[in-house]
Write a sequence for this structure.
């Protein structure tokens, strides 16, 4: 077990290294750089040279990568080119904002998805299943930029209940942020919940058809006891990994929703720094998002391992 | 007359087809189960036997519904009760022992918890009493150290142990009626014999009534007082077990018994043509009409009723049963196999073959060091003659399939070599074997459902080897395919069918045809009949024998079924834990002197005859790994001598009948003890 954790962490670190390499090479081969963007038409001659010198772009690429990597390991992502401030300071509030958005979506979405998934499975092909399944499939198929825009149109513009876009400074407190996040959370949670509910449904249905559930019925186990003792623990195990992927997606990748609502989170920062050719920030974001993915998946795998007696003994025997 | 506890009256169960027709899979079943008796329900797959057993618990599988009739247990009308009421009867009055205990035990709950759950539901014991009862139950089903077993998860037990746990769990509520749905199918022969013996003991000890559902007449014969034979959702024969097995008066039962290979009988079993009609396809007449050799014109139009014959205490559904009644000859029909003397003309030599599943550590690989001193398969020396059928026999884990895979090149041997046609050593690496060597060795797998590509038609399946090895195309290819189908007795119209449109027997025929398409010298048969019903098994065995005689092919036949092996093979090699125990002509391997392991296996074989009881010689233990040194069978051997067996590898001894045995006991002495028993 201990050995396995070490092995997985090492593998995760290798993944991160490869990600950093790919982003570095990728940004390097693209035409244009921070100085040409910053200087626009004056990007020639002495002004350009001076800019390169100031930003350290005159050093060979591999040396730049090494010194950058060395600093990253120590927790220093360097300076943002466009904002002219340490990236750590740019990232801090953004990470916090994204965390607020993601946790709100998770707190609402995961329990809701479990409940809906279980209801649809237990009442399979009956009215509750048909209604909920229709709604979830609908929610799954609408892209978030459409559902988000519709939400703004109905709730913010027609009904005027909530603000349509988020107009707050980046370093706002959580308390001030709260009323603003309601609509983005709904937009995100809709898709996420629908996906997870479908997944839980099929998993529960599969377990309900198994020999051991039939055996439990024939043993005289009351229905709800059977559901909670024999069905759910076995049905929800495979759901852990899906939940993990969803969380990882939430923390990093809700780019579209953040842009639509003008939400000051990591996703919008990704878009901003790419269009500004702010390469150090792009690299920092890539590393951060990749480590979120890697660590959340690692946690999910270990959780599955701990909860599944079958896998547990297999590992010990090895 | 003892009291009736379960009454099934005019029960019909069916499903709605996609077009909305109601199709019955149980038709008008009426029968009674008496207190304390064991009733065997036998039939081939699809005969409705499991559906009947489940209905006796008031359970109808999803997708099915009751079309009429009732199941009355004591005074309860089970099929009209709601779930809450049924919960009080299930597990307490009627308990189920499932087919595959490994899948029927909930994987995330410990054994102890699952038994405790049944006790909590159906008894008034307090916690301490329940704990004691759990140990008591596990003890009763003869599991070693009940306290530790209770703390394990289902997957940590062997198949036999899981089945015992399921029996223990069923006994927790002290039921009046036990339903057993193929409880020993899928277990090793020795384990199966032990579980049956346990069930017999429990029936006697507790006086519980049992309904034993199985396709295996051998197992049914060992436990039942009365037998019900089902065909196509109907009872076709019902009566005292002994009479039914000794003098079957329904043509289906007669054919069924005939198609079971028996140890005492050389030669291939007689086969029954055709297969059971699919539910909903048969409109009028007797459902067995198509396959019956006594059928007459009236059988085609009218379906016979179940007729009770007083003097035999037997019910039979046949117009012509009297013909079978008169037939006093007890002789079983069997086609004798053409056992011409096989000339010594070796085609395949296995020399000192060892195979290991252990992964070599990276460092050892670099240093080219052999780490696994105790490989899964070790020291296999077999010389196989052209045109011979040699069988590899053993329980699961004996390495028989592993050896097949190595011959086919799917698995690398670790040591030793495999020589083909006396002149060239087959490469260890499949990619390095040339096309003609690949063609020369073909495989037929156990389960045709998995070995035939479901998206290919029969034509495409058979075309592949023909294109690959002979480059055929166009008209020539097509004629060849038709030719092949004819050889396995399938019509031309099968070409356009997909595997899912074929029955189990037909699929296996296609698999056989595919193997023969390559015109191979050797065909490796891996449990080819294990997934088939007995009547189909007999037909496939006969087909294989016919093809072999026509083409002079050599078969290497892997099976766990000693009787099947007896029927088809010329020579038998008995394996235990990947080591050879005994090898010899099949007519002699089954005679003493035998290796103690062969003796154990032979003792556990179940014959469809209530007078032949299995002899349980060795303990039913599952060994994970072969022992490091000494005899491979030392852990279970009933005749173990002591330290000699534990430390020294036993020598080969050859008996007068050409039988080679690897044992420390002198072969003459062995013969004396074994015949004295």
């Amino acid at each position: 077990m201990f050995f396995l954790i070490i092995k997985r962490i090492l593998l995760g670190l290798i993944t991160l290294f490869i990600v950093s390499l790919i982003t570095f090479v990728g940004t390097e081969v693209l035409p244009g750089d921070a100085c040409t963007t910053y200087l626009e038409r004056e990007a020639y001659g002495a002004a350009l040279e001076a800019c390169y010198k100031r930003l350290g772009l005159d050093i060979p690429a591999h040396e730049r990568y090494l010194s950058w990597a060395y600093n990253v390991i120590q927790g220093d992502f360097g300076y943002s080119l466009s904002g002219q401030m340490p990236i750590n300071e740019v990232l801090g509030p953004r990470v916090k904002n994204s965390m607020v958005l993601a946790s709100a979506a998770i707190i609402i979405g995961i329990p809701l998805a479990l409940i809906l998934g279980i209801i649809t499975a237990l009442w399979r092909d009956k009215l509750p299943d048909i209604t909920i399944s229709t709604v979830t499939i609908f929610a799954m198929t609408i892209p978030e930029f459409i559902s988000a825009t519709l939400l703004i149109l109905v709730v913010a513009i027609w009904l005027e209940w909530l603000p349509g876009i988020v107009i707050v400074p980046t370093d706002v407190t959580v308390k001030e942020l709260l009323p603003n996040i309601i609509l983005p959370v709904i937009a995100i949670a809709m898709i996420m919940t629908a996906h997870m509910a479908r997944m839980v449904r099929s998993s529960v249905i599969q377990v309900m058809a198994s020999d051991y559930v039939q055996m439990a019925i024939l043993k005289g186990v009351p229905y709800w006891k059977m559901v909670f003792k024999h069905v759910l623990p076995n049905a929800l195990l495979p759901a852990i990994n899906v939940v993990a992927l969803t969380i990882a997606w939430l923390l990093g990748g809700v780019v579209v929703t953040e842009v639509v609502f003008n939400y000051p989170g990591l996703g919008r920062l990704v878009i901003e720094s790419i269009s500004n050719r702010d390469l150090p920030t792009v690299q920092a974001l890539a590393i951060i998002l990749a480590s979120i993915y890697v660590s959340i998946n690692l946690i999910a795998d270990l959780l599955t391992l701990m909860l599944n007696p079958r896998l547990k003994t297999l590992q010990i025997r090895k | 007359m003892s009291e009736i506890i379960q009454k099934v009256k005019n029960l019909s169960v069916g499903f709605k087809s996609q077009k909305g027709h109601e199709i019955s899979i149980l038709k008008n079943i009426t029968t009674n189960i008496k207190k304390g008796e064991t009733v065997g329900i036998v039939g081939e797959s699809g005969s409705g036997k499991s559906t009947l057993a489940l209905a006796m618990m008031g359970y109808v599988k999803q997708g099915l519904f009751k079309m009429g009739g009732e199941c009355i247990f004591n005074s309860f009308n089970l099929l009209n009760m709601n779930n809450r009421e049924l919960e009080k009867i299930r597990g307490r009055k009627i308990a189920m022992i499932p087919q595959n205990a490994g899948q029927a035990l909930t994987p995330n709950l410990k054994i102890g918890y699952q038994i405790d759950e049944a006790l909590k539901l159906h008894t008034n014991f307090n916690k301490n009493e329940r704990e004691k009862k759990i140990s008591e139950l596990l003890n009763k089903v003869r599991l070693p150290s009940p306290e530790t077993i209770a703390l394990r998860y289902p997957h940590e037990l062997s198949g036999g142990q899981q089945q015992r746990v399921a029996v223990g769990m069923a006994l927790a509520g002290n039921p009046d009626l036990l339903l057993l749905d193929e409880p020993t199918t899928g277990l090793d022969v020795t384990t199966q014999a032990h579980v049956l013996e346990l069930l017999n003991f429990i029936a006697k000890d507790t006086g519980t009534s049992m309904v034993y559902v199985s396709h295996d007449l051998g197992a049914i014969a060992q436990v039942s007082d009365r037998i019900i034979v089902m065909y196509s959702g109907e009872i076709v024969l019902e009566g005292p077990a002994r009479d039914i097995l000794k003098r079957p008066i329904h043509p289906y039962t007669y054919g069924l018994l005939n198609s079971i290979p028996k140890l005492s009988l050389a030669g291939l079993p007689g086969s029954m043509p055709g297969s059971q009609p699919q539910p909903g396809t048969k409109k009028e007449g007797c459902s067995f009409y198509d396959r019956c050799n006594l059928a007459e014109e009236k059988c085609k139009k009218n379906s016979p009723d179940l007729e009770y014959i007083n003097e035999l205490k037997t019910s039979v559904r046949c117009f012509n049963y009297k013909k079978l009644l008169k037939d006093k000859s007890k002789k079983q029909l069997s086609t004798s196999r053409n056992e011409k003397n096989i000339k010594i003309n070796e085609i395949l030599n296995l020399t000192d073959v060892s195979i290991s599943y252990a992964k070599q550590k990276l460092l050892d690989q670099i240093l080219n060091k052999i780490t696994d001193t105790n490989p899964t398969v070790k020291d296999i020396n077999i010389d196989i003659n052209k045109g011979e059928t040699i069988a590899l026999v053993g329980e699961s884990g004996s390495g028989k399939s592993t050896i097949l895979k190595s011959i086919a090149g799917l698995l690398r041997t670790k040591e030793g070599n495999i020589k083909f046609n006396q002149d060239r050593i087959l490469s260890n690496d499949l990619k390095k074997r040339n096309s003609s060597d690949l063609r020369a060795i073909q495989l037929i797998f156990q389960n045709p459902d998995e070995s035939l590509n479901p998206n290919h038609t029969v034509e495409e399946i058979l075309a592949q080897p023909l294109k690959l090895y002979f480059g055929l195309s166009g008209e020539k290819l097509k004629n060849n395919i038709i030719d092949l189908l004819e050889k396995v007795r399938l019509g031309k119209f099968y070409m356009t069918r997909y595997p899912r449109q074929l029955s189990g027997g037909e699929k296996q025929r296609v698999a056989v045809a595919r193997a023969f398409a390559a015109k191979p010298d050797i065909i490796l048969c891996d449990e080819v009949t294990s997934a088939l019903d007995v009547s189909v098994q007999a037909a496939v065995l006969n087909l294989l024998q016919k093809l072999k005689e026509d083409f002079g092919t050599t078969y290497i036949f892997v099976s766990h079924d000693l009787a099947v092996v007896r029927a088809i093979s010329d020579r038998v090699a008995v394996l235990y834990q990947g080591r050879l125990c005994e090898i010899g002509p099949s007519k002699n391997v089954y005679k003493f002197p035998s290796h103690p392991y062969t003796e154990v296996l032979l003792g556990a074989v179940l014959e469809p005859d209530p007078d032949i009881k299995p002899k349980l010689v060795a303990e039913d233990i599952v060994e994970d790994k072969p022992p490091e040194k000494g005899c491979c069978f030392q852990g279970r051997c009933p005749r173990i001598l002591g330290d000699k067996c534990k430390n020294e590898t036993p020598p080969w001894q050859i008996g007068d009948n050409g039988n080679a045995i690897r044992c420390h006991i002198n072969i003459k002495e062995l013969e004396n003890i074994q015949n004295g028993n």
Notes: Chain B has three domains: 35-57+81-261+296-326, 346-585, 591-677. Chain B has a mean pLDDT of 87.
